[in-house]
């Protein structure tokens, strides 16, 4: 029984032991499983532990060795953080110091960098739990390489943004226009210096504190509309002046709004000025004779002037429709206002390139129908447009052609002149010459082609002149014509005996024309004429002396004939029969007429030789005219001529030879009576002024032809129209009257038209005393 009890007890103990063992096995399994879970959790964590015992031994996993780039962990802390450590030397030294401090209870956290590879670890250290012994240290290694890279990048970005913010702040402060910031309540929180200067405040703090607004209208928020960007033009008073400002404000979300203001007053004025300039320019272009067309950047016509429309015959409504460039070209082609080209599409494509051809202008000439020449200038505009200028050069080209023809004619004429001609420029250089000039001076064409100065030609000219110093005269004449603009002439002789007259004439263009004329033959003719003139003058002198001597010689026998005839007529030779008495009367009449003729011839010859003596009588012209008229009334009565005398009181008195003046007036009056038909009228009128007296004899006779008017005062000339049985055979009346009047210092003039009569005017001067005493009374008949 006891055995049974023992066995039962043993069985019970065995069962209990078995049960307890199972429980402990289950607990151990659970602990192992929990350890495995924690080990896996530890392995998957970012930090890897390292236990350092108090004696410096290390306990760690292979994961830590792999993290540090080691095959295995060293056994001692001195080896891990020694000379061969995977850490940078300065970091290894610092970690050893931190471990020593951590053993005393001071936790630490350091950043360690690998010695070779670009890796970074954070090492957190502290005393190990008591279970690991005293002075044990537990280190946690975390690989923060990527975090450090990100932190460095973020730090760099932060630095750049800080620098940008600083630069932006400086830029805002240095900005020449006002800039501000408003808070969410739209009150000012920040302004720059330009804002302060614009509102004339003390500083930015005063502006913010007092809420000084730049523009006249205050900020407002109309149901959140102010949350949108705004751009408006408002007036503002800037530094005491009223200006137009462009105000721009931009919302910054919950941080308020930022804004700036730009003074656009000058810009607006410039825009207005630009508009005025464009209008003035277009008005000016519309007044040009050249056609102008302007295209915008869309290649549409935006402007044309009236000459353009007229030049190409384009309808105004078509041009007002702003046609595109290609369309305008097509319309001009349809109107026949383009040059004829073989490939029109290619030609138009080339002209389309005018819009993009660069800053320079393209020029070309168009030959249109009807021989019209048009010069085209295509100027690309900076805004992408195009300016076309059309100049009708038809007339200009025609004039140029005519000018070229004239130049060729002038050159041919110039080169074939008999005169030697040269043109010198304003600087004294020879610019033009003809072949006569070259041959005259013996120049080679190559010499003249170099356009030498007149100074360089002077030595050559001196060798061809009879007097070498005359070469300097040529130089001086050219200088005077080019510089002083004076015309001068001269005469030179060449060594070959020829003589030339030359002249230097200033031309309108500043040049000088030098011309030489060969006067050798004319000088010979002149010498011959001088000799002949001298001979004729001598012959005339001899003739005059002969006539004078003959007149004196004729007077002596004529006086004897007259004396004896008067004695016969007086009965000194006895009574005469009636027939004899008639003969004696005829002899006496012929003697009187011949004596008067001889006296006239003597007076005429004495007047020519200056031997005519004149008395100085105070002559009352009224009485003189009456006496002369009375002497001619019988001759007028024989032809039933009405002889009228009109003497004005202004005729007055003159000084002269009464007989000679009476003879001169009588000759003129007798000549008028001789040339008037029967029943005509002759008027003798005397008048005058303070300086001279005038005796006028006019008639209504047949008049004198223009050819005879030039010779009526010539000696011994008589017109063919004279009639009358008592008219002398030779005409000495008017020549003698002319010489008598001119001997008194007067003049005699004749005016006549065939069929209208003749008027002869004698003008006699007065002395100073007569001028002072000249009366001003009416006329008498």
Automatic annotation (TrEMBL):
Q: What is this protein called?
A: histidine kinase
| Pfam families associated with the record | HATPase_c (PF02518), HisKA (PF00512), PAS_7 (PF12860)
List the source organism.
Allosphingosinicella ginsenosidimutans
- Quickly give the catalysed reaction: ATP + protein L-histidine = ADP + protein N-phospho-L-histidine
Residue ranges with Polar residues bias: 753-770
| Entry's Gene Ontology molecular function annotations | phosphorelay sensor kinase activity
Q: Which domain of life is it from?
A: Bacteria
Q: Where is the Histidine kinase domain?
A: 549-768
InterPro entries listed in its UniProt record: HATPase_C_sf, HATPase_dom, His_kinase_dom, HisK_dim/P_dom, HisK_dim/P_sf, PAS, PAS-like_dom_sf, Sensor_HK_Regulatory
Q: Where do the segments described as Disordered lie?
A: 753-781
Q: What keywords are assigned to this protein?
A: Kinase, Phosphoprotein, Transferase, Two-component regulatory system
Q: What is its EC number?
A: 2.7.13.3
